[in-house]
Amino acid sequence: MRYVIIGDGPAGNAAAEAIRRRDPAGEIIVLSDEATPPYYRPLLPLLIENKLTQDALLRDDLHTAPRVTRFLDRPVTSIDSSKQRVTLSDGEGLEYDRMLLATGATPTLPPIAELQGEGMFVLRKLTDAQGIRQAAHDSHRAVVVGGGRIGVKAALALRSLGLEVTVIEMLDRLIPLQLDPEAGETLRGVLSTQGISVMLGEGVKGLVREKGKVRGAVTSGGKQLEADMAVVGVGVRANVGLASAAGLTVGNGVKTDSQLQTSAPGVYAAGDMVETTDIASGQAMVSGTWTNAVNMGHTAGENMAGGQVDYAGALNVINAMEVAGMPVVSVGVVNPTEDYETYPHRSPGSYRKLVFRGERLVGLLMVGDLRGAGVYHALIREGKDISREKNRLIAGAYSYAQHLTPQVPVLDSYGVR
Amino acid sequence: MKQIFVRTEHCMGCHTCELHCAIEHSQAKDLFGAAMELPTPKKRLYVEPGKKGPMPVMCRMCEDAACLNACISGAMYREPDTGLVLRNPDKCIGCWTCMMTCPFGVVGRMQQGGKLISAKCDRCHENPEGPRCVASCPTKALVHAEPEDWAKQERTSVTGQIAAGQG
Ligand SMILES: Cc1cc2nc3c(=O)[nH]c(=O)nc-3n(C[C@H](O)[C@H](O)[C@H](O)COP(=O)(O)OP(=O)(O)OC[C@H]3O[C@@H](n4cnc5c(N)ncnc54)[C@H](O)[C@@H]3O)c2cc1C
Ligand code: SF4
Ligand code: SF4
């Protein structure tokens, strides 16, 4: 049996691991369009800051499936699912029995004047981070277009290198998808104590270039900023080009069945390129997080190797981070509309918000104090009626201990190895 | 793999296991030394109010470990020989993804080497005497045993009150 995996990110690696567990003898080939062995994308800001070397970003043997053949720097240019064959950029063809699409996503570029060219960066790949680090070395001021997760991480990295940094965000708060207005405001305060300027509710009309080089930016409100470089983080788009060209069913991401098989038999998909359903809101979503990518990779891999498991489902928001001493967790619905009940809780240095729909916990936002985050997260995933525990949950006095039933003398197989 | 089981009817909620966990994870490894240390040594298990009384909650070294699956830096790993899920302090960047995903809520935060990193049970794997929480419990409410042995022992015991899979 030959398994071909396109994409060497967390989804591809998780799938390889799951396949290897079920099928010790099968041939696994991972194809990557990147020249480096697999690495941890979320560590890229630390490369920019010179806190980690390139080698420290790489996966080690404990985190890579054994006996996998890797083709690096070999983009796949087309798929023929009827012939069960992929073609690489150098024209070479490769047949497969089962195939996984795990091609991730690509940063989108907004329609901004003078955007493309020297001194403008996105942050997704190792080569992007290397470019940013290099440019930062020769720059004094940076403008960051977009105040989402990537924009904020890029801003902090550049600031730590001593640059003057301005973040410009179109919406009224930072990291708008994962934070609510109150947490966003707290974050803005944290960034300003770091010396980062933040402009909210403002777009970027264009970059200003002089002989091709970035010299500044103009905002939608007409403000002029000086800058020597720009980082753009306004979101990503699923890499579905291969799948569309091969005639697979595609929406905002590749569509799959409950076992993560695409419309082409034997072809599976996992990670940032899949369109799936948000457990918390029930709405269609395309994931942008590591956790979902790994879970999908495990499920897809298991099924490719003969398993019959349903994907447990993704959460559109499932994010943890530490921003300059401020720990944050957001899970599920954090910016609810009127059909939801919201319980905020504030104490010095921390903020917790629980969101319920009916008798189900559907959302969690925690800032400052993360105790119990994992238990709340598990309840959101389970989606059960928790009316009896609601008050305890709201009071923050809930722990896993309340789940345990002392009378039942079973060895709960959940954790026992 | 051995697990830690709880004989719930023996637990008085005295928190001795928590204290000894913190001591075991100190430099000094004794109470007085540990109490003086900065940063303060952190416990990795939690005695919480349960349905019928106090209940120690600790890492189960899950087979399908959410913390390990979720770690974005490669710091969480499964030790091949023992199957333990451990955290490499050098690689941990303190992003709290593991804390967010552990369904038992048993990952915490701690300071080490000038940075904040995750804190989780390591079953005292460097201590030949085994888990210190187990050794320290004055009422022997915690038992470190192979699941099969534990099942056999409990079938013949009269107490019968067992925490479901507390291990
Ligand atoms: C700076 C940064 C920080 C982040 N921090 C976090 C975080 O803290 N928490 C979190 O949950 N998520 C974080 N993320 C997001 C996370 O990295 C992604 O969600 C995750 O990498 C998605 O995994 P994936 O395997 O689906 O895709 P990817 O990791 O994007 O991997 C896909 C791979 O496929 C390759 N590929 C694409 N097309 C082809 C082709 N035709 N042929 C061959 N190869 C191809 C791509 O080049 C890429 O290497 C961060 C991302 C970045 C950039
Ligand atoms: S920390 Fe939590 S998820 Fe990780 S192995 Fe322990 S119990 Fe399982
Ligand atoms: S806090 Fe450390 S161990 Fe936990 S997920 Fe982040 S890097 Fe991994």
In short:
Chain A is of the alpha/beta class and 417 residues long.
| Molecular shape of chain A | globular
Instruction: Work out the strand percent of chain B.
Output: 15-25%
Q: What is the level-2 CATH architecture name of the largest domain in chain A? A: 3-Layer(bba) Sandwich
CATH class membership of the largest domain in chain B: Alpha Beta
Please give the largest β-sheet of chain B. Answer: 2 strands, antiparallel
Uncertain spans of chain A, ≥5 residues at pLDDT below 50? 405-417
Q: Assign the CATH topology of the largest domain in chain B.
A: Alpha-Beta Plaits
Helix tally of chain A equals: 9
In one word, what is the shape of chain B? Answer: globular
Q: What strand order characterises the main sheet of chain A?
A: 3-2-1-7-19
Main-sheet strand order of chain B equals 1-8
Rg estimate of chain B, integer Å? 16 Å
Number of domains of chain A: 3
> What is the SS-derived class of chain B?
alpha+beta
Ions and ligands: flavin-adenine dinucleotide, iron/sulfur cluster
Compute the number of helices of chain B: 6
How far is the N terminus from the C terminus of chain B? Answer: 10 Å
The N- and C-terminal alpha carbons of chain A lie at a distance of 29 Å
Major beta-sheet overview of chain A:
5 strands, parallel
Structural class of the secondary elements of chain A?
Answer: alpha/beta
